């Protein structure tokens, strides 16, 4: 049995986190390849990506309540293995209907594996720190994917994208088979005892708050490039900004780990939605490249930093790990709904409507986070969350 807090256990969980979040780090390349290499229109390409994301959300919602009943190693291994097969088959076909089925199947399998990955991270001795390490690993992984995938597409055409996806999922499945950690026997009994109890109300408020922040993130970030073009920025300028954004996302997760004992989690969660909404407005209203670039870099950084603290706080409020097994649903629902919601607003009301929507959604997230207990109260007794 591999302990959660062993080097091998942590490494496997970080690898599984990266594979499970592949859809988010590769979404631009993914949709672009479906349009340019397969000839799908933007709606079809976006629809295929949404099918995968929707599958992740559905699987996460179904699997999270079962976290204490099923064996994590088995679910994660099978989930990533099925996803590897689905992505591999996608590389052999080109018709929309078959690709749609394979996207949905792969999304469901990935979501199941990722749910048990996040639920297991929540069962570690220091979940916030481990989740921060996973976030840092994801940043490095994103750089690797954005370098290697275009090369694969250039060499093999559209199927090259799915070959890369399949290889990533296969490596994750093998890693989970060899070393996916299990809850220690001593912790297991407590885990089983805690699992049947209903989640306290504060946990639900935390889940909803993160979900609303993820919608704001996806809504604004999806249209970063067309916004820049509308401001008169050149392709080179926008490309430089996107590279800067990718590099900037390497830092908030380790920073959250370093500041875990210095910042009160609730304070971070209250500041997060406010700053996040302000950055959206700055991106919209800025006329110069510098404020546009700074705000664009800060958008994902604030989201990552806030979510890392939220992960740590929710792990203390829910010792069973079930709530954080729903982490994929919290994040992917925003990735799935944000682009279409933002696009609809822009179509009917213009880009300025994104700022109003961001302000309203951020206010909802702030209200949800205000219902969470302070860090000291949460550490002392999770039951205090019910009175927060």
Brief rundown of the structure:
The protein is an all-alpha fold. It is 79% helix and 0% strand. The chain has 2 domains: 7-194, Growth Hormone, Chain: A, CATH 1.20.1250; 201-387, Growth Hormone, Chain: A (Up-down Bundle).
Structure description:
By secondary structure, the chain is an all-alpha fold. Helix content is 79%, strand content 0%. The chain folds into 2 domains: 7-194, Growth Hormone, Chain: A (Up-down Bundle); 201-387, MFS general substrate transporter like domains (Growth Hormone, Chain: A, Up-down Bundle).
CATH architecture of the largest domain: Up-down Bundle
* Structural class determined from secondary elements: mainly alpha
Low-confidence segments, given as residue ranges, are 185-196, 379-388
What is the strand tally?
0
Looking at CATH, the homologous superfamily of the largest domain is: MFS general substrate transporter like domains
Beta-strand percentage range: under 5%
Mean pLDDT figure: 87
Can you summarize the main beta sheet? none
Q: State the separation between the terminal residues, measured CA to CA.
A: 38 Å
Number of helices: 19
Number of domain modules: 2
- Principal-axis shape: globular
Question: What radius of gyration results from the CA coordinates?
Answer: 20 Å
């Amino acid at each position: 049995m591999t302990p959660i807090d062993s080097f091998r256990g942590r490494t496997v969980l970080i690898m599984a986190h990266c594979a499970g979040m592949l859809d988010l780090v590769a979404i631009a390349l993914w949709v672009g390849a479906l349009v340019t290499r397969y000839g799908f229109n933007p709606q079809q390409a976006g629809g295929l990506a949404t099918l995968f994301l929707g599958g992740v959300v559905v699987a996460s919602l179904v699997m999270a309540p079962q976290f204490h009943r099923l064996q994590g190693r088995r679910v994660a291994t099978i989930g990533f293995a099925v996803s590897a097969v689905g992505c591999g088959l996608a590389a052999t076909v080109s018709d929309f209907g078959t690709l749609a089925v394979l996207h949905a199947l792969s999304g469901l399998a990935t979501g199941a594996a990722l749910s048990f990955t996040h639920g297991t991270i929540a069962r570690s001795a220091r979940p916030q720190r481990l989740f921060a390490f996973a976030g840092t690993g994801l940043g490095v992984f994103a750089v690797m994917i954005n370098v290697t995938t275009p090369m694969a597409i250039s060499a093999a055409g559209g199927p090259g994208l799915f070959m890369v996806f399949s290889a990533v999922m296969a490596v994750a499945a093998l890693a989970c088979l060899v070393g996916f950690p299990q809850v220690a026997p001593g912790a297991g009994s407590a885990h089983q005892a805690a699992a049947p109890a209903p989640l306290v109300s504060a946990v639900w408020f935390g889940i909803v708050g993160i979900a609303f922040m993820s919608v704001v993130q996806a809504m604004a970030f999806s249209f970063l490039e067309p916004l820049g073009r509308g401001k008169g920025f050149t392709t080179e300028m926008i490309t430089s900004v996107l590279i800067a954004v990718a590099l900037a996302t390497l830092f908030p997760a380790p920073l959250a780990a370093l500041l875990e004992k210095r910042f009160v989690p609730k304070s971070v969660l209250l500041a997060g939605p406010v700053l996040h909404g302000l950055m959206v407005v700055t991106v919209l209203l800025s006329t110069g490249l510098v404020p546009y670039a700074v705000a664009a870099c800060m958008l994902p950084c604030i989201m990552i930093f806030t979510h890392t603290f939220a992960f740590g706080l929710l792990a203390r409020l829910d010792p069973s790990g079930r709530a954080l097994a729903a982490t994929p649903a919290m994040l992917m629902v925003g990735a799935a709904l944000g682009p279409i919601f933002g696009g609809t607003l822009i179509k009917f009301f213009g880009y300025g409507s994104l700022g109003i929507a961001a302000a309203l959604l951020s206010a909802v997230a702030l209200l949800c986070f205000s219902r969470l207990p302070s860090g000291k109260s949460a550490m002392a007794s999770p039951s205090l969350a019910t009175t927060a």
